[in-house]
Amino acid sequence: MDMEYEIQNVVVRVTYEDSEFDLNRLANLLEETRYDPDIFPGVAYKPSGKEASFLIFSSGKMNCVGAKSIEGAEEAIRELTERIRGVEIGPDVEPNIEVQNIVASLDFERGFDVERIADTFRNVEYEPEVFPGLVFRLSDPSATLLLFPSGKGVCAGVKSEEDIEKAAERVTEVVK
């Protein structure tokens, strides 16, 4: 299949079982944080020079966003875990990591007749006066693809690189 993709964002849920964070202390010990519990119940942490950033909650849960690969997210989580353990407020357990969403830009290396696709398939949305792309929803794998006449696209809602490739392959097969 002729298709190139590049991951733009990986969203990961991080859980430290049976752990709690003292967010006031955490915000004071880590640099590059924002914490105002009257506005948001978590610490926003963005280490300088890094792609990934975090939302950290007192429940021992975090969201990691912005990494360009699953490995990059895992590395950022490892670094943060070591850092908070180093200031003796971190959990003793290893984190459970669950990919929630991957967003990738796609290049199918060919154009699409999005109007024909919109007229042919039921699982699509196309309103060119509102948005120039066609929204194509798949159930296997679970994914949403935005397709543009230029042959470019965006894939969202997947949880692995395999699913990006499967989703792109399915769309290519269906819209030949």
Automatic annotation (TrEMBL):
SUPFAM superfamilies: TATA-box binding protein-like. GO terms for molecular function: DNA binding; DNA-binding transcription factor activity. GO terms for biological process: DNA-templated transcription initiation. The keyword RNA-binding does not apply. The keyword Ribonucleoprotein does not apply. Keywords: DNA-binding, Repeat, Transcription, Transcription regulation. Sequence repeats lie at residues 99-175. It comes from the Archaea. HAMAP family: TATA_bind_prot_arch. Belongs to the TBP family. General factor that plays a role in the activation of archaeal genes transcribed by RNA polymerase. Binds specifically to the TATA box promoter element which lies close to the position of transcription initiation. This is TATA-box-binding protein. It comes from candidate division MSBL1 archaeon SCGC-AAA259D14.
